[in-house]
Amino acid sequence: MSEDGFRATYGTGPEGVWAAPGRVNLIGEHTDYNDGFVMPFALPHATVAAVARRADGRLRLHTGSPDVPAGVVELHVDELEPGGGAGWADYPAGVIWALRDAGYEITGADVHFESTVPTGAGLSSSAALEVVTAVALNDLYGLGLERWRIARLCQRAENVYVGAPTGIMDQTASACCTEGHALWLDTRDLSQRQIPFDLASQGLRLLVVDTRVTHAHSEGEYGKRRAGCEQAAALLGVDALRDIPYEGLGDALARVEDPELRPLVRHVVTEDRRVERVVELLETGDARAIGPVLTEGHASLRDDFKVSCPELDLVVSAGVEAGALGARMTGGGFGGSAIVLVEESAAEKTAEAIVGAFATAGHREPRVFTAVPSAGARRLV
Ligand code: GAF
């Protein structure tokens, strides 16, 4: 229990306990930094924070995670500077920096974290860590911040303090998702709709397959894709690739001569269209029909955007061969996880086929679990 962990670390009890989940993205990949559309949902896996305010400016951060060195990270709120250097603690420290930089008075905190979100699996463990810190401080310091604003501040923490040029999807998913729904989000103005997403009642299941190939966005490739998209948008005379309508794709491609940039444009424009199609299908109650759209999205990420890897491709091919309705990588790529849409009755057989294909290929055994659309960030105690 995180309250016990807080007590064991700091010797007193916390003022409250908050949770923020990891996410899976159903469709809409690498569209968020192009002002486009995304459709994530929250996982039951969450980061929990037991928190108490301090008045002396000290910031003490501790995690029960076995993946990081033990010990309390001690910082001072006046000394937080972009660039961090405190490893995992940069994410919560960055949130406090972003809040203070935006003019909110935070006078210190003691925090103990515990998490069930797998790290490095492309399931937004970083966003969960940021958002749980922000919602806790928002409540304790009475800041009155709306959820979309919390997401923006957390994104700023990640972009500026941590130095990873990510979009707004993961923080918004963690802050705004609701149980039983996928979140349709327009990343330009953060307008959103909760789309009912209850696969179980339709005899379906969505498997998450964590390839256990660790991805690392800040290490260059993600930033290169983002820069390429921005360059293409500038060439085409639009603010962002979202402004190229699907019907105008042919014309746009004819105007982009650079063979590196052309496929980036094609991916983003077709992916925005796939988000629209998935929303339409879910709203007409035809969840089975989203399968091929997911698989098409994977091909686009693999061939045009070039952010897949052999293990992610194998999840998709082995899953589809075993009879899955559709499959795709989810998240930033270069490792991490894939999702596989299956008939409930075929779930076990499909998971076994994927694990078997990994063994045959000599890859590390993947972790497979069922994704249940769950609640966004909330106060627990
Ligand atoms: C990562 C980023 F953090 C998101 O902002 C998004 O760009 C995603 O990759 C790709 O869709 O999760």
From TrEMBL:
<keyword id="KW-0460">Magnesium</keyword>
<feature type="domain" description="GHMP kinase N-terminal">
    <location>
        <begin position="91"/>
        <end position="176"/>
    </location>
</feature>
<feature type="active site" description="Proton acceptor">
    <location>
        <position position="170"/>
    </location>
</feature>
<dbReference type="GO" id="GO:0005524">
    <property type="term" value="F:ATP binding"/>
</dbReference>
<keyword id="KW-0808">Transferase</keyword>
<dbReference type="InterPro" id="IPR000705">
    <property type="entry name" value="Galactokinase"/>
</dbReference>
<feature type="site" description="Transition state stabilizer">
    <location>
        <position position="23"/>
    </location>
</feature>
<keyword id="KW-0067">ATP-binding</keyword>
<keyword id="KW-0963">Cytoplasm</keyword>
<dbReference type="InterPro" id="IPR022963">
    <property type="entry name" value="Galactokinase_bac"/>
</dbReference>
<dbReference type="InterPro" id="IPR014721">
    <property type="entry name" value="Ribsml_uS5_D2-typ_fold_subgr"/>
</dbReference>
<dbReference type="InterPro" id="IPR020568">
    <property type="entry name" value="Ribosomal_Su5_D2-typ_SF"/>
</dbReference>
<dbReference type="GO" id="GO:0000287">
    <property type="term" value="F:magnesium ion binding"/>
</dbReference>
<comment type="function">
    <text>Catalyzes the transfer of the gamma-phosphate of ATP to D-galactose to form alpha-D-galactose-1-phosphate (Gal-1-P).</text>
</comment>
<keyword id="KW-0119">Carbohydrate metabolism</keyword>
<dbReference type="GO" id="GO:0006012">
    <property type="term" value="P:galactose metabolic process"/>
</dbReference>
<feature type="binding site">
    <location>
        <begin position="29"/>
        <end position="32"/>
    </location>
    <ligand>
        <name>substrate</name>
    </ligand>
</feature>
<feature type="binding site">
    <location>
        <position position="158"/>
    </location>
    <ligand>
        <name>Mg(2+)</name>
    </ligand>
</feature>
<dbReference type="Pfam" id="PF10509">
    <property type="entry name" value="GalKase_gal_bdg"/>
</dbReference>
<comment type="pathway">
    <text>Carbohydrate metabolism; galactose metabolism.</text>
</comment>
<dbReference type="InterPro" id="IPR036554">
    <property type="entry name" value="GHMP_kinase_C_sf"/>
</dbReference>
<protein>
    <recommendedName>
        <fullName>Galactokinase</fullName>
        <ecNumber>2.7.1.6</ecNumber>
    </recommendedName>
</protein>
<dbReference type="GO" id="GO:0005829">
    <property type="term" value="C:cytosol"/>
</dbReference>
<keyword id="KW-0547">Nucleotide-binding</keyword>
<feature type="binding site">
    <location>
        <position position="222"/>
    </location>
    <ligand>
        <name>substrate</name>
    </ligand>
</feature>
<feature type="binding site">
    <location>
        <position position="126"/>
    </location>
    <ligand>
        <name>Mg(2+)</name>
    </ligand>
</feature>
<dbReference type="Pfam" id="PF00288">
    <property type="entry name" value="GHMP_kinases_N"/>
</dbReference>
<keyword id="KW-0299">Galactose metabolism</keyword>
<dbReference type="InterPro" id="IPR019741">
    <property type="entry name" value="Galactokinase_CS"/>
</dbReference>
<dbReference type="GO" id="GO:0004335">
    <property type="term" value="F:galactokinase activity"/>
</dbReference>
<keyword id="KW-0479">Metal-binding</keyword>
<dbReference type="InterPro" id="IPR006204">
    <property type="entry name" value="GHMP_kinase_N_dom"/>
</dbReference>
<dbReference type="InterPro" id="IPR019539">
    <property type="entry name" value="GalKase_N"/>
</dbReference>
<keyword id="KW-0418">Kinase</keyword>
<dbReference type="InterPro" id="IPR006206">
    <property type="entry name" value="Mevalonate/galactokinase"/>
</dbReference>
<dbReference type="Pfam" id="PF08544">
    <property type="entry name" value="GHMP_kinases_C"/>
</dbReference>
<dbReference type="InterPro" id="IPR006203">
    <property type="entry name" value="GHMP_knse_ATP-bd_CS"/>
</dbReference>
<feature type="domain" description="Galactokinase N-terminal">
    <location>
        <begin position="6"/>
        <end position="53"/>
    </location>
</feature>
<comment type="similarity">
    <text>Belongs to the GHMP kinase family. GalK subfamily.</text>
</comment>
<feature type="domain" description="GHMP kinase C-terminal">
    <location>
        <begin position="279"/>
        <end position="354"/>
    </location>
</feature>
<feature type="binding site">
    <location>
        <begin position="120"/>
        <end position="126"/>
    </location>
    <ligand>
        <name>ATP</name>
    </ligand>
</feature>
<dbReference type="InterPro" id="IPR013750">
    <property type="entry name" value="GHMP_kinase_C_dom"/>
</dbReference>
